[in-house]
Design a protein that fits this description.
Blueprint: E1 7-12, H1 16-24, E2 30-36, E3 40-42, H2 47-51, E4 61-63, H3 64-67, E5 74-78, E6 80-85, E7 90-94, E8 103-106, E9 109-112, E10 116-118, H4 136-155, H5 159-165, E11 167-171, H6 175-191, E12 205-210, H7 221-234, E13 236-240, E14 242-247, E15 251-256, E16 261-265, E17 268-271, E18 275-277, H8 279-288, E19 298-299, E20 305-306, E21 309-314, E22 319-320, H9 334-352, E23 367-372, E24 375-380, E25 383-386, H10 388-401, H11 405-421
Parallel strand pairs: 1-2, 1-9, 2-5, 9-21, 11-12, 11-17, 12-13, 19-22
Antiparallel strand pairs: 3-4, 6-7, 7-8, 10-18, 14-15, 15-16, 20-21, 23-24, 24-25
């Protein structure tokens, strides 16, 4: 008799959630196919350290095939998922590495973990002048812009133009924005201070713009205040209750909640504000006859499946999941995506055994955010910490979750050397100078 073909599971997205789902099925009687348009898993919480020269790209990115090489039931396909045929249970693929496509990939169970990107709130033209810190390419672009700004200031004779090169605007004061602003300030006031002969890098100005009432709005107010004081100690100027209304190649317009508008001369702007779901959420919703919210997120059942489609899971930043108390939605954080991926794998295993499975329930393990050298805040199970102890916890947690023993060892060595010498070993400018980058005119907002 011909043996029955194994259950086919297709996972779209090799980020925290998707990879956790694949690994959760390593001992299940299934065939798993992981689809991603890039061949590596990026550890996004440390992307900002690549953008400021603290780490090299390879130290926070691990090839998917290396991660899964010992998982015999898993296959990796590098391609872009462009759509779904839910009736025929197929994923539509394009941009295959051999130039082929479009193609179709069949499944019995589908897990979509498309992730998210930053939202420019309807002003996509700002992206040219204010790149987002969400991808490896974006981090390398920002690294070249930040380091290039200091190089430009070194040879700029005009004092006003020199100060514009030394002014950095970070938009968004969530964990990523706070971490990025703190790193730029440390770079200017510490690591680069003795490397330049003409320009005084300590005159750099770092503005952290946040529309909410305070930085790190997702943290308790007490920790938010401590974070703000730590940022100011590093030389960062937090601007809460302020909104960016225009971005050009050489300036950023900032409006206060009172209506006061200031145009700041700044050659470097970095976007870390607002999040919108991956376009896969809209494509999945359209195929299933569902709606998405203002952030482009798809609502799912308590079991993380599409309504009426129990064979289709949607997880991570691209979905809207209610908190257990029903008063809000789960944040778009790596721990949430990882727990959802683990849950989806567990449901599949239970179904294959003919067992029921309880609805998804998120276990909040706390929040961490680093600000600079020996400065961080932590909210863990109601215990609120700041300073060196919070910073040490942040280092340990990120080392544990980083993929691969080699990467953990390399990052640990890098951090140790950086702590002892206050240096940064990956300060390479790999993008073209600002004068050679394509530019576009941006209309000012009234």
């Amino acid at each position: 008799m011909k043996p029955e073909s194994p259950h086919r599971v297709v996972v779209v997205g090799g980020g925290f959630g998707g990879l956790k789902a694949v690994r959760g099925l390593r001992r299940a009687p299934v065939e798993v196919t992981l689809v991603d348009r890039q061949n590596f898993m990026l550890f996004q919480p440390l992307v900002y350290q690549v953008a400021t020269g603290a780490l090299s790209p390879a130290e926070i990115a691990t090839p998917l095939r290396v991660i899964l090489r010992r998982q015999r039931n898993a296959r990796v396909v590098q391609a872009e998922a462009t759509g779904f045929d839910l009736e025929r249970r197929e994923v539509l693929l394009d941009r295959l590495p051999n130039g082929g496509g479009p193609a179709r990939l069949g499944y019995d169970t589908l897990i979509v973990a498309g992730g998210s990107r930053y939202s420019y709130f309807g002003h996509e033209e700002w992206r040219t002048h204010a790149p987002e810190l969400k991808s490896l390419a974006g981090a390398l672009d920002i690294r070249s812009r930040v380091l290039g700004a200091f190089e430009a200031a070194e040879v700029e004779p005009d004092p006003v133009r020199r100060q514009s090169w030394l002014t950095f605007v970070v938009v968004g004061a969530g964990p990523t924005g706070v971490e990025m602003a703190g790193q730029i300030a440390e770079l200017a006031h510490d690591a680069l201070r003795r490397d330049f002969r003409w320009v005084d890098t300590t005159r750099a100005r770092v503005l952290l713009v946040e529309a909410a009432d305070r930085v790190l709005a997702g943290f308790p107010e007490q920790l938010s205040r401590r974070a703000s004081r730590s940022l100011e100690g590093l030389g960062v100027t937090p601007l809460a209750r302020h909104t960016v209304v225009d971005v050009t190649a050489d300036s950023v317009a900032i409006e206060s909640r009172d209506g006061d508008l200031e145009r700041v001369g700044a050659r470097t702007a970095i976007w870390a504000a607002g999040v919108t779901a991956s376009g896969l959420a809209a494509k999945l919703a359209d195929e299933a006859g569902l709606d998405v919210d203002r952030a482009g997120r798809l609502s799912v059942e308590p079991g993380l499946t599409l309504p009426g489609r129990p064979e289709v899971f949607a997880i991570g930043d691209m979905v809207r999941v209610q908190t257990p108390d029903g008063r809000g939605t789960l944040p778009g954080l790596a721990p949430v995506a990882m727990q959802q991926g683990h849950y989806a794998a567990g449901v599949i295993r239970s179904r294959l055994r003919g067992r029921a499975h309880a609805p998804f329930r998120y276990i909040d393990k706390g929040n961490l955010a680093t600000i600079g050298r020996s400065r961080a805040v932590a909210d863990v199970k109601g215990v609120r910490l700041s300073g060196f102890l919070a910073w040490a916890i942040w280092l340990l947690v990120h080392l544990v979750y980083l993929s691969g023993f080699q990467n953990r060892l390399l990052v640990f060595v890098r951090w140790t050397i950086s702590f002892l010498t206050r240096g940064r070993g990956a300060r390479l400018i790999t993008a073209p100078p600002a004068a050679d980058r394509p530019s576009m005119s941006v209309a000012g907002a009234e």
